[in-house]
Design brief:
single chain, alpha/beta, about 250 residues
Length: about 250
Amino acid sequence: MEANENSMKKLVIISGGLGVLGQAFATVLQEDGYGILNLDVVEPPPDKKIIGDYLQCNIIDEQYIKKFNDYLASMDMEIHGLINSASSQPEGFGNELEDYSADSFKDVLEVNLVGSFYLTKTVIPYMKKQKFGSIISIGSIQGVVAPTFEIYEGMNITSPLVYSVAKAGMIHSCKWIAAKYGRWNIRCNAVSPGGLEDSQHGGDVFNKIYSSRTPLGRMAQSNEIAEVVRFLISDRSKYITGQNILVDGGWTVW
């Protein structure tokens, strides 16, 4: 990866950066003048334009994490923010609990919890030294409330137990990090979306069912989640830390 050093003076790192949400975050943050470093386990397709720079990184592999840290150490820049957005849907992700494999369960937990742990652990020393940083973890409404299982009846999708557990863990870890590192002006918040229309796999039927149960009558778009992330990365939110911001169209009010 050839990075533009001038654009990297204020860097935001995005795990899962090649995904729909990751690229939505990269788009708005690049507009605000930040350098973007996308971390992802897969390489981008050669014909796809990527917003920001890219570093291949398996965030649950310590060897990749070491290379990531070496890369950061080689750059003359401020690590302005980290967005923990990587997720995993291994084979069997949507199975019923009775048929769920321990391997699939561990895989989801590792990417969400161990991966965000490694990345946060890596950037904290830089942020402590510069006495500033904004860390954001992407949670979910299902890390806050139980799924409404009726909406999945007849669908080829569901929300498994491990997803709720992983997202709840990410949300609570933000509170711990905020409490621990606030003295260095390091903030940590979670953003928990509701259903995303532009990245859901249930099609028009699921969209209609989900939307009918939401006060605003529709699913979210990824760029709407990105606007909240833009705010939390910026100095406009400099007195907000340890919070979980629900961006769900009102789903959790009922």
